[in-house]
Amino acid sequence: MKVFVSVPRNSRVMDRFFKEQTIEYLAECFEVVYSPLDRQLKAEEISKYAGDADVIMTGWTHPMIDGKALENTSIKLIAHTGGSVADYVNDDVYARGVKVISGNELYAESVAEGALAYMLAALRKIPDYTGEVRKGGWRLPGPDMSQGILDQTVGIIGVGAIAKNLIKMLQPFRVKLKLYSGYPIDEAFLKENNAVQASLEEIFSTCRIVSLHSALNDRTRGMIGKEHFDLLQNGAVFVNTARGAIIREDEMIEALKEKRFMAVLDVFCKEPLEEDSPLRTMENVYCMPHMGGPTADRTPMITMRLADDIVRFEKGEPLQYEITNEYAKRMTKQR
Description:
7-stranded parallel beta sheet, 14 helices, Rossmann fold, alpha/beta, 5-stranded parallel beta sheet, 2 domains, 14% strand, single chain
């Protein structure tokens, strides 16, 4: 099995996903050829550099692969080291019978872990207390406002791979879960996880913690705004590890100025966040520079797990990380 790695040399993706142990692992499994370019491959160059390969491994910022790009190639499998493939493959790829795999499920577990960490940090005010100690103080003035997750009611918006991992992680905390989805949620899944399907309005008005995990698409863009934030109870925590554009950001900022609730924001409408954004200085907002996941220790493992799936493909076995055409169409587009 010949694998062409299209990731540019000396790039961030190469540094993160193709460390020494990863490169050795791939070499043990396949005949591997790496792109000789210091820039991203162009779609029309795929046949030139990857024409005789069975598999092409791609990363962030790769051009869209369509039927024309695959002409005069032997590619049977696309392995994307990123999560969503919505910007990287289209219907033509699937029509040609080419299979697609990605690190989406592996990303999901790591992002869910990040969302849980954000919840705990905000509820227990960890940045505030550590900041006070760092500057020579001790406890914060006024009453102790720390909270926990145990026995809370948690609302989760969007029930995709990340949310399902988060739901599992929350079970030891004995939370009551309210889930929002644009589609009916399986009753057995709800019962198994002590959850109910609820409207956005019910989630925002009754949940102490609200965590956003919807994909960004035409249906969800600008889905959440003032009418939802006005429903949040005093002391609530809103977490966004999905996409900034799902929120009407200006309306969220106005609601946050009331200081009734806290927000942990990992994503924004424009990234990097503008230097003069009020979100940077609000005491009830924790801003993270899109660090929800995967963590640095997980990225080499993602590439190796995709390599394992390539081995399964070679053996004709079911793929563990396959992205079907239907699934790809529900994923977030980033460009």
